[in-house]
Design goal:
Chain B: It is found in: Cell membrane; Membrane. The complex is a heterodimer of chains A (272) and B (291). Chain A has helices at residues 44-52, 87-92, 96-99, 107-119, 135-149, 165-180, 192-198, 215-218, 221-228, and strands at residues 4-15, 18-29, 33-38, 59-64, 70-73, 153-157, 184-188, 201-206, 208-214. Chain A has 272 residues and is of the alpha/beta class. In chain A, the strands form two sheets. A six-stranded mixed sheet of chain A has the order 5-6-7-3-8-9, with helices on both faces. Chain A has a three-stranded antiparallel sheet with strand order 2-1-4, covered by helices on one side. In chain A, a hairpin with a 2-residue loop joins strand 1 (4-15) and strand 2 (18-29). In chain A, helix 4 (107-119) packs across helix 5. Chain B starts with a helix and ends in a 6-residue tail after the last helix. Chain B contains 13 helices and no strands. Chain B is globular and about 65 Å long. The longest helix of chain B has 39 residues, at 181-219. By secondary structure, chain B is an all-alpha fold. The chains are: A alpha/beta (272), B mainly alpha (291). Chain A binds chain B through residues 52-54, 70-72, 74, 77-80, 83-86, 89-90, 93, 96-97, 100-102, 129, 145, 149, and chain B through 41, 159-160, 162-163, 165-166, 168-178, 180, 220, 223-226, 229.
């Protein structure tokens, strides 16, 4: 089990009493590159928040392998673009895991900030105020910050939104580079073609996992159809989920052969 | 030369109360102006105003129990301010209500209690004193208190600077890498209360927030970085205090409003002439570079 990065144990995440992720079990292998796909409201962002710890689980838990540091690029950043900061100030926040509150930023740190900007194609943007950046440039700036965080586990929530084709290519290249460095990466993506071309593994969510495993297998038409039937709206009077109601469903198969069945918990975890 | 000396130096050289007023108000600027910059950048400018009102019942309680004494009124104000800041902050952090609404609710309740307390025993003269302060009557005890407040403020800002900037710039990011987000918010609110309390003996509860916000708001028009903005705000605060005290001395005006109005003049000048002000934006618009 030493090559497991993340373990979900009966994880339920949500808002109020309504689950957005319902009884998720499974493992994320170290060094894996996984796309998280699903309809709006299927729990993708919620899962990301749960992993990074911004949202506390309603039940179950997310277990991070010891020593794993996460970097998180949220979908809806709470970034205040009117704050008087330069690109270099924003990217330097990524030094936090290394330098913390009081550690001095050394010359090497400043160099690594420049290199990170260079890597996302924003060399020379250091002194630009952040309120003068375009949407795509800002997204790349945030990628540079993730780069600087030097994390083992990288969580990107819809990083390609409102980003032009060339930039998407650049960012994908960066993600593949991270993959080559044996970092564990989870990316929420909408574009299925992009997923098929670039992501070895996929988790298909519809509050519960519909399928989880090798991308081509996961994105089979019948799985996508089942994911599409997912009912987005909460039901105010939905029955309470009984703790024992799902226990017998845990005899997971490997590599999700049960995808086609109307099984409560669809796919099993990756055989780790 | 003599007239210049008479206008600018003599009032401070000849009168002890003017010296103490100058020292007190300059020290206040040193602490309050950087705090004001962050208050503004967090879009909490009016929260500062609300907090200033919230201090009243505490100061009034001190006044009722001990009369017109600096220390009890200060401690009372501090307690009331902290209760309101923590209460409003907690409501906004842990419920769906935003900070503006919870702050308004808490400070209005607090203000009503304060007015009630003052009216029970005080005359309107006392109320005026609490509301408007007297920078010209700062005694050594008050100066020591202000000095302590400034020291605490500057040290706290230096320690928590990076977290405070991160919390303003990208709070979700800070939460993902550190647990300092909430503590830093409350420490910051504490600094706001501390500086308002420090200012209220000099400027009164109503106007102490002016020395905090106006220099900060004016500095916003001149620079696009936080550090220079804080320095500039302090300098504007200094200039306003000196100008205000001189104005008050020569024209026999109440000193508190004179200081705040001086800052107001700088604010309007900054709107017009600042590097990010109106006039500059108009002129630059006519020309553009090729890339």
């Amino acid at each position: 089990m030493t090559n497991t990065c993340l373990t979900f144990r009966d994880l339920t995440l949500g808002y109020g009493s309504h689950p957005a992720i319902h009884h998720l079990d499974g493992k994320i292998r170290k060094g894996s590159l996984t796309a998280v796909v699903g309809a709006n409201g299927s729990g993708k962002s919620t899962l990301m928040k749960g992993i990074v710890g911004v949202l506390k689980p309603m039940a179950g838990e997310v277990i991070r392998a010891p020593g794993v540091r996460a970097a998180y690029l949220p979908q809806q950043s709470e970034l205040d673009r009117s704050f008087p900061a330069r690109v270099v100030d924003l990217v330097s926040l990524g030094l936090w895991p290394r330098r913390g509150l009081l550690g001095r930023h050394t010359r090497e740190d400043r160099d690594s900030v420049s290199q990170a900007l260079m890597a996302v194609g924003l060399g020379g943007f250091e002194k630009r105020p952040i309120d003068t950046l375009s949407g795509g440039q800002l997204q790349r700036t945030l990628f540079a910050r993730v780069l600087l965080q030097d994390a083992d586990l990288i969580l990107l929530d819809e990083p390609f939104n409102a980003v032009d084709a060339k930039t998407v290519g650049d960012l994908i290249a960066l993600i593949k580079h991270w993959h080559g460095e044996e970092r564990t990466i989870l990316v929420v993506v909408h574009d299925l073609d992009l997923v098929r071309q670039n992501f070895p593994e996929t988790l298909l969510l519809a509050r519960q996992p519909i399928a989880w495993g090798e991308t081509r297998e996961t994105l089979k038409p019948e799985n996508l159809l089942r994911a599409r039937r997912f009912h987005e709206a909460w039901e105010e009077n939905a029955p309470w989920c009984e703790p024992d109601g799902h226990a017998h469903d845990h005899d997971h198969d490997h590599h999700g052969h049960a995808h086609g069945h109307d099984h409560h918990h669809g796919a099993g975890p990756r055989a780790a | 030369m003599d007239t210049l000396y008479g206008l600018f130096i003599a009032p401070f050289a000849d009168f002890g109360f003017m010296q103490r007023a100058l020292i007190g108000s300059l020290m206040l600027s040193l602490g309050a102006c950087p705090v004001g910059v962050f208050l503004m950048l967090r879009r909490m400018s009016l929260s500062g105003d609300a907090m200033a009102h919230a201090i009243l019942p505490g100061a009034a309680a001190g006044f009722l129990l001990y009369g017109l004494e600096i220390l009890p009124m200060t401690i009372g104000g501090l307690i009331a301010g902290v209760i309101v800041a923590l209460g409003a902050g907690a409501v906004s952090r842990f419920t769906i209500q935003r900070e503006d609404a919870s702050m308004a609710a808490f400070y209005l309740i607090s203000l009503a209690i304060g007015v009630l307390m003052v009216s029970i025993r005080g005359s309107s003269v006392d109320l005026m004193h609490v509301l408007f302060g007297t920078v010209l009557a700062l005694n050594n005890e008050a100066l020591t208190l202000i000095g302590g407040i400034v020291a605490v403020t500057l040290v706290s800002l230096a320690i928590f600077w990076r977290a405070l900037v991160a919390e303003c710039l990208d709070p979700l990011f800070l939460r993902s890498v550190s647990r300092l987000g909430s503590p830093v918010h409350f420490i910051f609110l504490g600094l706001v209360v501390l500086n308002l309390v420090g200012g209220f003996q000099a400027l009164g509860t109503l106007l102490s927030v002016g020395l905090m916000m106006l220099p900060a708001a004016a500095a916003r028009f001149w620079t696009v970085r936080v550090e220079p903005m804080c320095v500039l705000a302090v300098l504007i605060g200094f200039a306003s205090c000196i100008a205000g005290l001189l104005l008050s001395y020569h024209a026999s005006l109440p000193s508190g409003p004179a200081i705040i109005l001086s800052a107001g003049v700088v604010y309007f000048a900054s709107i017009l002439f600042g590097t990010r002000g109106i006039l500059r934006a108009r002129i630059v618009h006519h020309r553009h570079r090729t890339a």
